[in-house]
Amino acid sequence: MDNEKLNLPQYDIPDDIQNAVAITTLDRLYNWGRRSSVWPLMFGLACCAIEMIAAQAARYDMARFGMEVMRPTPRQADLMLVSGTVTKKMVPAIVRLYNQMPEPKYVVAMGACASGGGPFKEGYNVVAGIDKFIPVDVYIPGCPPTPQALIAGLIKLQEKIDKESLKKVRWYRKGPDAVEIPVPILGPDLIDPRRSAEIKQIAAAVKEGAS
Q: What tens digit of pLDDT does each residue of 94-127 get?
């Protein structure tokens, strides 16, 4: 157990028991146990996925951060790495996977495409950022980001986990935050069910203007 990460700085521990005793809080202990046991979901969308694979290989070795167990099923994963271009056809599957992941869960938008559409932002078939549909915790810039950039982003995620409080995290709250995200409908275009009221208003205004 790493006492430097667990001990609270305002409490001094005698030198003779430095490595045997830790004075900490429940939040700190809980977060310490989670920060180095994050299991990413094993899927990739485009060229960013190649950099993600490289980060798992021997040269960069994400196992140093406890993130080497990439799971092929969302029910055993708590980190979604959106690595690559998000097309409208792919969004329903991504949202469905996100809903199947157990809490606590996190999302990292890896690269320019996942963060904001990248060079394909004006394309008719590309979503300008996955954060339009699922909440993103960390954005990693680059096209594609290097394995070092991915690791830096995951370290930022660990820092975010370190600061979480059991009293405030969404998976222990009741209400809208606990409701799963409705899966978008793919038709002539991608329809977000959460915007149904807005879409109806726009359609009514267009119909009224045409008449």
A: 999 999 999 889 999 999 999 999 888 888 899 9
- State the CB neighbour count (10 A cutoff) for residue 111: 28
Cβ within 8 Å of residue 58, ≥6 positions away: none
Q: Which two tokens stand for residue 132?
A: 């339009």
44, 34, 40, 37: which is closest to 85 by C-alpha? 44
Closest CA to 78 of 35, 132, 27: 35
Kindly give the interhelix angle for 147-162 and 26-35, rounded to the nearest 10 degrees: 160
pLDDT at residue number 195: 85
Residue 60: which of 175, 185, 150 has the closest Cα? 150
Residue 190, beta-bridge partner list: 186
Question: Whose CA is closest to 157, among 35, 63, 64?
Answer: 35
